[in-house]
Amino acid sequence: MSVMTWTYLIVGLSFSLYIGIAIWSRVSTTQGYYVAGGGVSPLANGMATAADWMSAASFISMAGLISFMGRDGTVYLMGWTGGYVLLAMLLAPYLRKFGKYTVPDFIGDRYYSDTARLVAVICAVFVSFTYVAGQMRGVGIVFSRFLEVPINTGVIIGMAIVFFYAVLGGMKGITYTQVAQYCVLIFAYLVPAVFISMLLTGHVIPQFGFGAEMQDGGHLLDKLNGLSTELGFSPYTSGTKSTIDVFAITFALMVGTAGLPHVIVRFFTVPKVSDARKSAGWALFFIALLYTTAPAVAAFARVNMITTINGADGQGVLATEAPAWIANWQKTGLIKWEDKNGDGRMFYAKDDRNEMTIDRDIMVLANPEIAKLPNWVIALVAAGGLAAALSTAAGLLLVISSSISHDLLKKMIMKDITEKQELLYARVAAFFAVVIAGLLGIFPPAFVAQVVAFAFGLAAASFFPAIILGIFDKRANMQGAISGMVVGIVFTAGYIIYFKFVNPAGNNASNWLWGISPEGIGSIGMLLNIVVTYTISHLTAPPPAHIQELVDHIRVPRGAGAATHH
Amino acid sequence: METALREFDFTIPPFNLLTREQTVALGRRIDIGFESEGSCVLESGTPSNFLYMILKGHVAAVDQREGDAQPLTFAEYGPGDLFGSMACLTGQSRHSYMALEDVLLWTIPADAFRETVEANGRFAAYFLDSLSRKAAMVETGAAQSDLGELMLTRVGEAELAEAVIVPADLSIADATRRMRDRRVNCVFVDTPEGLGISTRTDVLDAIALSGRPLTDAVGSITTVPIVTCDSQAPLFQALVSMTRHRIERVAVTRKGHLVGTLGLAEVLSHYSSHSHIVGLRVARARSREELAEAATGLTPLVRTLNATGAKMRHLGELVSALNARILARLYALTMPPDLQDRCCMMVLGSEGRSEQILKTDQDNALILGEGVTDAEVAPYAVALSEGLVALGYPPCPGGVMVSNPEWRGSVPQWQAHVEQLVGSTAPQSQLDTAILIDAQPVAGDPVLFHPLREALSKLGQNQIWLHHFVRPAIEFHAPLTLRNPFGRDAAVDIKYGGIFPVVHGLRSLAVEHGLAVTNSFERAVQLGERGVLSAELTADLQQALAVMLRLRLGQQLESTQEGVVPDNRIDLGKLRRLDRDLLRDALRVVKEFQAFLGSHYGHGI
Q: CB of B425 within 8 Å of any CB in chain A?
């Protein structure tokens, strides 16, 4: 069977599985209201959280980033993992006890201020937005390759599917659907990784294969370093970024992701606090399964890619004899070959010899094809990518649309709209979010990367300090929080806008503040915010007594020992 | 004619109740009529030559009352609606029917209609039953609405006095004493001519006006023969007999045996304040047996009130008030006096919301005051629950009753319990919370309840908890089409698909906004006043809930009568066209409300 047939089959099957579970769980809950629906084990919930957490960016883009950036790419790996841990340990349990469902609600109530709420709403929408844009591009790539259409058409198909999945898909967050999505996703990620690891290194476990000797002698990473330097790249295992910059970027990504609204919600779905802890642990395990495989996948893919383009002899492969995967991906426009020297051979390098333009987001999807794995594995990866993108996109659209319709319109701008109008606006907002995110996916992709940096930087510099101080410093007040957020946002946004838009030419380490790139400047913005908030809060009147009590209450366990007979 | 037969849709209720022969016979007589816009099809108070079914256009039923300048439009009828049945059957149309536009009508000759009514009982029941329903919609308290009660209530269901039979030679004094001892207003006298009757009025007249000595035989002031009424006869038959014979009392017989007497006062009070009688009997009950007897009056009361078109909300409140009195009385009879005021019994769930219309499972709990130990109250609590079972309230399958130690506790224990509930979104605790939120104190010291109410009102501050709490209200869906693809009308579970989402959604919103009221209608009103719900949705929700509760009650009463255990399924095939339309509208409102709840609590867009 062809790849396309397999794709229709496997994607179709996985979608019917999700829908089937949604229907099945509805039918079973009808039997007894609350009772039959409950009893989700921490293990299952851990899988669901992992599915929510791992978006198309994790599934599709991360290995590609590492593959092309080498060691520098690991900032995403560390940043996102760290963000999860920060969220699970430092934020979620307290937010849960505070009882606010969204971050803007927490900030608005904790600082008894609509201005603070508004700032948080805008940040939440902005961060969610850039995230949706990432998902949209991921879905677009999957569709364009496997339906064999150009990337733009793929994104438009993806837009339609994501919109219908989010708006007309009914109830969100059915745990078992997400468990199924996780299973599809992890299976799709691991199967090709295991196959390729066995082919290249003889190890079944990709994580071991990553550090092992290859079948034809020599360590994988040594070979990669050799290839990289030979082709004019910096060695794969040594990054180009300074240590402080890597640290700053990782930190900004961590605190930026920790505030991701659609994942925080997931921590609130577990019935009991103790179960919530266990499921957070399980989720970390399930995330690690994929995240630790990613560097191996990245390295395998890079070795395979270079050797299939440049040929075993390193002289380039004749275009007429080029492997099928190049031709397939050329149709999507994500691989371009320009025969500069007119020898009819393709060549990939960092320097002038280069004739290839390769989009790094295709690496995970193209990987099985490059390794000549069976067609069903290729189709399986497509299903995995869709599973990752859809669950995240639906959650994000929900956040965006309800923030706009409920927090912004109903609570602030148009207070007397009816329920029907509110719902309509929510859907309109979701529609526009999809369209704009889709456009970002179609038009300059470089711009998306900058917006992402912007989003994480802003999230780090704005509401992360407000949340942390809101939980751990009962003295933090409205004046402090608002001035802190304003200072953090202005500083971070100014720095990013200056280097990315005003003076892109000067965007290099020599001009940067302490050698920190715009991607990492959110960390400094965050520190500034904390200092300002703390100082102003302590110079002005303390927050009202009931707020202080509340802060004490969420941190200090109360009545834990007073078990009753109930 | 044959075209008419072919085209007239005999599958529409009630015509689907007819046999093949009846269909053919009636079909032969059906014709098509035309009325131009503004013409009067049928004049109020006049007989009708036809039963009409609208084919095309609209007709308004109007009431022209004296003193009103403008006629009052009572209802509008559209295609498929029937009118004129009353005018055919009783010879008097209740309203005037005006054509609002050019109207095409199916016309069924009155004599053919009457013949069919006489030949087919179920077909007849459709018209007779819906008369009372329609009548009740016009206005309450009018003579028309009493008609429904008179038609439905049977003599045996009224308050009967004991039949005391005395020999004819008993002295007037002894007969009077007998009346006082047995607390009756008349005695039956066994005379040679047959059974006669002597009332207190007869005795008074004999002594005061005729100057008879007290030693005279009672037989000399006895009226023979007596007027009797069968206990299965409609109550209005008794009223008619009394009016006709100018008497105030009839003897009631069952299968020819004398079972009691029925007075005019009882007949009248049956209609005006039947509930009062139940309440009075509850208050007077000195033993559990007497209380049980009083409690049996509830279902007939509901039946009567429902038939007269009493508003669902008020009906629920009335019945709940009576249930509460029964409970309070049982509490007083069961608990020792020194414990009574140191504990507080509360009713939960639908009973607490005052929406329990028929007696169902017990849902109650007990708050123990300071210094009261659980061991002290345990035996009485068990006795309370058992007493309720004896009164016809089945035990709660989930064990939510005072006999279960988990549903008894001191004030601090209850507070801790509520606090614990917020920390959990487990299904069982959500269920427990839902019924606890609707709690109302009914017996004992209500002050004990205040701290609990206070703790419950804090639940709404936790949005995460609310997010999970509201979920069941959004998950259930009723089909809007109401007709399944296989051609057979489906039964809709109106509780899961309609009533529960509305009640639970309003409950969640009420908790979120800290409302102290528990009644769903009242919650909707207060949420509307606070701007949480739009005026439109507030009105729609109340209307929808009332419709669904009424339809469910109708079905349940029918089940009770048929001896089937009532459930929450509405058999769509049995619904009248009007009801089916109302149900469809109600379910549409439910769907809209669910969409609102979903977006409000972050479940979907």
A: yes
Give domain status of residue A333, yes or no.
no
User: Quick check: ipTM above 0.85?
Assistant: no
User: How far apart (Å, rounded) are the C-alpha atoms in residues B58 and A336?
Assistant: 70
| CA A7/CA A144 separation, integer angstroms | 12
CATH of the domain at A92: 1.20.1730.10
**Is-contact A499 A552, C-beta < 8 A?**
no
Is the residue at A527 inside a domain? yes
Place of tokens 């023969």: B225
- B413 part of contact set with chain A, CB < 8 Å: yes
Contact A35 B427 (CB under 8 A): yes
- Residues for chain A: how many in total? 566
Full domain range(s) for residue A436:
3-26+41-303+374-554
Cβ of B602 within 8 Å of Cβ of A265? The answer is yes
Say whether A481 sits in a helix, a strand or coil: helix
Could you give the CA distance from residue A373 to residue A371 in angstroms, rounded to a whole number? 6
Q: How far apart are CA B230 and CA B156, in angstroms?
A: 8
Query: For residue A435, which amino acid is it?
Result: V
Write down all domains in chain B, each with its CATH number in brackets. Answer: 2-138 (2.60.120.10), 155-271 (3.10.580.10), 285-461 (3.30.460.10), 468-600 (1.20.120)
Contacts of B409 in chain A (CB under 8 A): 564-566
Q: Give the Cα separation of B195 and B225 in Å (integer).
A: 6
Closest CA to A405 of A393, A417, A395, A394: A417
Specify the number of domains making up chain A: 1
8 Å CB contact between B364 and B407 = yes
Angle between helices B264-284 and B298-307 (to 10 degrees): 130
- Shortest distance between the Cα of B474 and any Cα of chain A, in A, equals 8
Please report the residues numbered 177 through 196 in chain A whose beta carbons come closer than 8 angstroms to any beta carbon of chain B: none
The pLDDT profile of chain A, 566 residues, written as one tens digit per residue, is 777 788 888 888 888 887 777 666 554 443 344 443 455 677 888 888 888 788 777 888 788 888 877 777 788 888 888 888 888 888 777 877 777 777 787 888 888 888 888 888 887 787 777 777 777 777 888 888 777 788 788 888 888 887 877 776 544 556 777 788 888 888 888 888 888 888 777 777 877 777 777 767 677 777 777 777 777 777 777 777 777 888 888 888 888 877 677 777 667 666 666 777 788 888 889 988 888 888 888 888 888 888 887 777 777 777 777 777 777 777 777 777 777 777 777 777 777 777 777 777 788 888 888 877 788 888 888 888 888 887 777 777 877 887 787 777 777 777 777 777 777 888 888 888 888 878 877 775 555 556 666 777 888 888 888 888 888 888 888 888 888 888 888 888 888 778 777 777 777 767 777 877 777 888 888 899 999 989 988 888 888 887 787 777 777 655 433 333 44
Q: Is residue A508 part of a domain?
A: yes
Residue in chain B closest to A262 (alpha carbons) equals B602
Instruction: Assess if residue A223 is contained within a domain.
Output: yes
What is the pTM assigned to this prediction? 0.66
> At residue A140, what is the residue type?
G
CA distance B533 to B526: 9
What is the Cα–Cα distance from B603 to B605, expressed in whole angstroms? 7
**Cβ–Cβ of B533/A39 closer than 8 Å?**
no
